[in-house]
Amino acid sequence: MIAPTLRTTDRQSALSAERFFDDIPALACRIGSDGCLNCVNGAWFDLLGYSSQSLVGKPFAKFFHSEDIPLLEKELIRCGPQETWDRFEARFRCQDGGHKWLLWQFKTDPERRSIYAVAFDVTDRKHEESAVRRRLTASNLRGQIWTPFTNGSSTSQTLQVWADLLQRHLATREVRIWVPAQSQTRPVLQARSVHPVAAGESLVDSEALETFVREVLASRTSLVIPDIHAEPRLAQHREVFRDRNIKAIYFQPVLSQEQAAIAALGLFFATECGAAEGYFIETTAQEMGAAWSLLALNENLRATKRTYEALFRSATVGISRIDSDGNVKAWNAAAEKILGWRSTEILTRRFPIAGLSERELFETCLQGAFAGKSTLRIEIKCCSSIGKPVDVAVSISPLADAEGVTAQAMVVFEELTERKRASRSLRLQKTIAETLAGASSIGDPLSAVLATMCGEFGWDCGEFWQLYQPDQVFKRAANWHSAAPNAVMFASESQDCSPSAETELFRQILREGKSRRFAGCGHDRTFPRSDLAGRFGLDDAIAFPVAAGRGSDAGVLLFFANAIDTPDEAFVALMATISDQIGQFLYRFRMEESLRQAEQDLLQAKKMDAIGRLVGGVVHDFNNVLTVILGFGEIVLEEGGSNESTRELLTEVINSGKRAAALTRQLLTFCRKEAAELVIFDLNVTVTEIEKMLRRLIGEDIELVTELAPGLRRLNADPGHIEQIIMNLVVNARDAMPQGGRIVIATQAVELDASSRKTFPGANPGHYALLSVSDTGCGMDEATRSRIFEPFFTTKPVGKGTGLGLSICYGIIQAHDGEILCRNNSSSEGCTFVVRLPAAAISSQGFPEEP
């Protein structure tokens, strides 16, 4: 009886347990050792929509969310015979395909080798927790949106940070941010964030999404694609989205405070995005819009600051900021270059003004700037770092802060040294050009130029030394001195100084072609006139070469002063220009003198031509008379008998007639009416033959000496013409010694080469005979020597000379390819005429060749 009773009791207990299993409100099930469901209660249908038939025998893990299966397997392994039930939360799929969050508890039944599981629905709690987390996430995200501003990130860097934040907080597959392009029709992809699963690989081509981006930017409203696979405009890319596990895309515009579309967000989701995600995205976009506006403002401020700093650094004018106390607060590179002060030296110091009156003017303008008034331009002198005054033009403007209060003043200044130097240079060159233009002499205009230069540069004395040819000597052509007593005395005593000491110095300056400053010349004994300069306090001197045209237009400008600054390149260039002006003036003046001389020579040539025609006719008639005289003289000489004295007188008459005939031939030659009769003759013999006549010609109070060189080569010339040269030179020497003296006639044989051109400029290399006539008379100055060969030029009183003697000699010598020179004797008494005549050519037998 007992056994049946027990079996009845067990069945009743089992039935009671099954009724309890079915009636509990929670989900309950038993899982077999094969992992399949053995039984489920009715709550599965009420909560998840499943019938028991659709669940029993099915794998339990099949109904879990794929992401929660690893957690389920872990819990099943841990499940044991302990009294307590392990608890975990996981998502379980519903009949309609959705998922609910369930709180599971497992317990093992060893007897049945199964596991009992009970689950409670915690979906609402999980959603609430998710909402709370989203709100916290949104709050954190909004805070993190402003993070880039703390480290001064650029716009592109900020957008990249935002894309990473959205991807991380919304667990999206990817986030992209586009911005509208100003010059392009297509929006520009500015930033993107890649899901870690596909790190380094973009999920989809950006061009496929541009249509949606343009639509969002144009409409300024969000656009949601809940199911990409149902969107026809993305049909070509469905496989890509499926492979990347992307189901939905949310496009959201980012609007500025002025409601302008400044960017578009693109968020790629693996699941559908609901209202919560939408709200989260919209509020985040609003925060981004506000931050973007501030970012743009900060970017503009930074750009403005960069522009200001670039202008401040690279400006070619000096810029400085000065506070209300007058101290320098900023100092740019141009200011350092102009005044030499480094910013580290000038900051917190007062602006460097030179001079008390200019300091007062600057302070007045500075006070006006702090009162809101600007000073457009004032010209003052600033003090450089080495203490040298610098001319600058200054502008002062007020600098107001955000409240409109003038806290600092902006000082902008530029150097005027070069501008003033250029203006002074132009003014000085103009004055000198006007002074030299149309000048009729050299001394007065150059003295005026020296006065202008000394007045401009503060020099005390100025001199111009001109080089005269062919003696290569320097002479003071012009000078000027200031009214200062020391300058007057220096100039006065300098007149008595010989220029020989300075000649070599001037030649060296001309050879170098460079200016030279003589610092401390008053104490330098090697400098000419150092004693004078030191005695009168003119311790510095400076010299500039002057050269134009040929050597006769060269010279040296020499200036003296108490102190002369070391010339810089600009000053040297200015003085070179002025020196060129003076050189061109000398060249022009010489050319004008040559032109006037050429005009006079032309008039003289016309006069000589007329005289020549007259003389030619007279000479022919005179020749006829001489012919009669000579003919009858020879007849009388032949019939004169043996009276020796009578024969001697007749012979002298005939010889004088012949010389008169030779003179007529010379006159015809001078008038170009008769050519010379060239013969080979000995110059020494000719001198000897006319020596007796010359002694009677010069008188007893003058000594005549002949120094004839032996072995003199013969000449190929007209003997009568050579006699006329000797007679004219001797007569001129006699007239130069009215109180008596000494005349020396000398001959010499020379062989000249190329180096002899310095002595005889017109000579070609070869053999020559030199004939010289020296006297001990009064000599001639440079001006007289330069004109002695001009026709009708004479220094003799009226009626004492015709001025034709030396011009006839010059013409005869030129016709014989010779040369005549005149120089004063080294003893400073008298002068010497030297005639160079070419020797006759020698034949192969050693005899002169006949013409």
Q: What is the first-to-last residue Cα distance?
A: 193 Å
Given helix and strand content, the structural type is alpha+beta
Biggest sheet character: 5 strands, antiparallel
Stretches where pLDDT is under 50 for at least 5 consecutive residues are 1-6, 843-847
- Largest sheet, spatial ordering of strands: 2-1-5-4-3
Give the rounded overall mean pLDDT: 82
Label the overall shape: rod-shaped
How is this structure best described in words?
Helix 5 runs parallel beside helix 9 and helix 20 (683-698) packs parallel to helix 21. The chain is of the alpha+beta class and 851 residues long. The chain is 44% helix and 22% strand. A hairpin with a 5-residue loop joins strand 9 (248-255) and strand 10 (261-269). The protein is built from 23 helices and 27 strands. The N and C termini lie far apart (193 Å).
List keywords for this structure.
851 residues, alpha+beta, 5-stranded antiparallel beta sheet, rod-shaped
Short account of what is shown:
This protein is 44% helix and 22% strand. With 851 residues, it is of the alpha+beta class.
What's the structural blueprint in terms of helices and strands?
Layout lengths: L1 H22 L3 E5 L5 E4 L2 H6 L3 H4 L13 H10 L7 E8 L5 E11 L4 E8 L1 H23 L9 H16 L3 E6 L8 E7 L15 H10 L3 E3 L12 H6 L4 E8 L5 E9 L5 H40 L3 E6 L4 E4 L1 H7 L3 H4 L9 H15 L4 E9 L5 E12 L5 E10 L1 H20 L6 H15 L3 E8 L4 E9 L3 H10 L5 H13 L3 E3 L11 H6 L4 E7 L8 E7 L7 H71 L4 H27 L8 E3 L1 H16 L3 E6 L7 E3 L1 H17 L5 E12 L13 E9 L7 H4 L19 H11 L3 E6 L6 E8 L13
Parallel strand pairs: 22-24
Antiparallel strand pairs: 1-2, 1-5, 3-4, 4-5, 6-7, 6-10, 8-9, 9-10, 11-12, 11-15, 13-14, 14-15, 16-17, 16-20, 18-19, 19-20, 21-23, 24-25, 25-27, 26-27
Helix pairs in contact: 5-6, 5-9, 13-14, 13-18, 18-19, 20-21, 21-23
